[in-house]
Amino acid sequence: MGSGGVLSRLSQLGDPLERLNKGIDFEMFRKVLASGPSKLPKGAGGRPPCGYVLMFKIMILQRYYNLSDDQVEYQVNDRMSFMRFSGLTLADAIPDSRTVWHFREQLSDRGLVEKLFEVFLEKLESLHLLTSVPLQSSFPFCLAGQR
Questions:
Q1: Are 80 and 10 in contact (CB under 8 A)?
Q2: Cβ burial, residue 103 (10 Å; 0-12/13-18/19+)
Q3: CB-CB contact of 94 with 74 (8 Å)
Q4: How much is the pTM?
Q5: Which residues face 142 on adjacent strands?
Q6: Residue 36 in contact with residue 112, Cβ under 8 Å?
Q7: In the chain, what is the straight-line distance between the N-terminal and C-terminal CA atoms, in Å?
Q8: 130 - beta bridge partners?
Q9: Among 6, 36, 103, 130, which residue's beta carbon has the most beta carbons within 10 A?
Q10: What are 88-117's pLDDT values in tens digits?
């Protein structure tokens, strides 16, 4: 089964990340994201900068699935649903764990991480994509209709 068949099957199974992509226009976060990290090159070589929205989606995956920087790098490389949610294909370069860490630190230094997630959670609630989470849960949010 090719990647198209896998993605179709994930859709049939009710991929919650696909529902997020359909329900939220992540471009609404671009302006706030662009006010945070700088993409200035520090010298010759290195990886090209990653898109702000892509990096924010990776941060969402980290929170939703409680993943470390190393694990989110691995999981985005490994999981078709994570790639689709992030807008990546098998041919794309995937941000490494250091890039994820650096992006989050730059947002954090400017006090933007909690602001972004506050707006994100409000959007989830307005779309009825958020369900209540028990207080003892380690997950910061839970999508409605999850199995």
A1: yes
A2: buried
A3: no
A4: 0.81
A5: 131
A6: yes
A7: 24
A8: 143
A9: 103
A10: 999 999 999 999 999 999 999 999 999 999
